[in-house]
Amino acid sequence: MRRFAPWVASFALIAGAGVFAEVSWRSVRPSIPEIGRKDLEPTLGQGVLLGVLGGLRTVVADLTWIRSYVLWERKDRAGCEALMRAACALDPYSRYFWEHTAYVVGYDLAHWEIRRRGGYDKVPAEIQDRLFKTYARRGIDIIEEGIARSKVTTPLVLSAAQLAEIKLKDHKLSARYYKQAAEAPDAPWYAARICAQVMWEDGRRQEAYLWFRQFWISRMLPRDDGYPDDLKQLRTMEEVLGIRPADRIPRPSWER
Amino acid sequence: MKDSFQRTLWIARVTFLEAVRQRFFAFLMVLGTAMVLSSVSFRVFDFGHGELKFIADFGFGGMFFFGSVLAVVMTAQLFFSEMDNKTALTLLAKPLSRAEFLLGKFFGAWAVLGVFVVVLASLLGAVLWAREIELVAAAEQAGKIPTTFSASGLLEFVALQWLRLGVVTAIVLALSSLARTFLFAVVVGSLAVVAGQLQWIAQDAVLKPTDSVVYEAFLWVSCRLIPNLQQFNIGDALVLGSAGVPAGAVSTVALSGLFYMVAYLFVGALIFRRREI
């Protein structure tokens, strides 16, 4: 029994260190970008693993991205998407990867799929439409994941809005994204205008006008030159909606 | 106790001097340095990351990759050169225990790795600092928020990397005590590093519920026996602040590294005590 005591002690020491490592791992886990087996498995043998081992994560992510473009040129749907997703997983803080992966999935993959099935003449229009919408939905899902994992949200929200508007043809969803982007502190100047336009085209004219009016008065009028082009759009809306002159936006001194 | 400490220190000193004179150390040092310095030239391959992040990643990669190679190969080489040249026999014939010999080897090799990590980190710090000045000036002109790096975070990261390499050295010494050939120690040591870097996959899997008791037991044992080396890999969060590091997390990881080192050195000493030289 005594003979085995040092071995038992050494096993206990290693196991003890392992148990403590679990505690320390839990404390640092949120600081390390997550990459799961599902991100790794489709890319095995392509060097992605090197990025997971330690350091070089950004570099491997960049090289993975370059490699994904080789597959993009070959129109290899599965390979291209897998590598692009791997680049996103390797560097989840990069807006570029999320945005472009979503664009490729949302805009390109449906076209590749239609060509694979025989082309635009052979594939029925309703199936084409379904494919466009399915891939657009997947693109938006990628952006949603990117919003949750990266630090840059507003540009990604705008990309989601664009995808929802152009490919998914879901104006309600698109307007919701544009609104979210417009109300963010780092919103670009055009987000509110497009939001109002999308709501308008969705048939919610009164709502579009009221929201855009409120936004222009509170957020745009006090800044820069007061955004005259947006006011012009608001005036057009007032005309179309037939709003009485007394209820319209008061005329600023600089308005022509 | 004091004599034992002195003997260990003496072996460590000799090991350190022997290691820094090796061409292999100089070669890896040059490669690591070239990697850190060339990071600025490789910026054209960068896709929308922060520029400092890209440069820092090159440095982290150099420290991880060349540091691991150095820790595995140099440690095994230092150990087996004593065995093959029979100098270990002469040394152990004197009042020097096998545990002291192994500890001396460990501290000597670990000190060399410390030099390696500090040199690379200093260079990385200098490159980051020089680029940060340019980026801050450019950002101020453009009215944007400049990206910066944390020097204290870099220091913490260096300490963690040194500890990680210490764990690798302890594992390689334990393996060398068992191995008959240098090649075996290097190959298995390298596999242990890869396994250690990927151990977190098993650690994450343990937390998920499963129906298979055998699978769960396998994961549990793997998590306890293979060291988690990925936990030392929080350079992005420490140096660039990409994600917050909870208070006390660095010291917890450091303590975990020390525990691993003690455990593997203990096993190594135990195996070495029974080894025929």
Describe the overall structure.
Chain A has twelve helices and no strands. Chain A is mainly alpha-helical and 256 residues long. Chain A has a domain at 182-256. In chain A, helix 6 (95-116) packs antiparallel against helix 7 and helix 9 runs antiparallel to helix 10. The longest helix of chain A is centred in the middle third of the chain and has 25 residues, at 125-149. Chain B has one domain (2-273). The two termini of chain B are 26 Å apart. Chains A and B meet through helix 1, helix 4 and helix 6 of A and helix 3, helix 7, helix 8, helix 9 and helix 10 of B.
Quick recap of the structure?
The complex is a heterodimer of chains A (256) and B (277). Chain A is mostly helical and 256 residues long.
What key phrases describe this protein's structure?
heterodimer; A: 256 residues; mainly alpha; 12 helices; B: 277 residues; 10 helices; 79% helix; globular
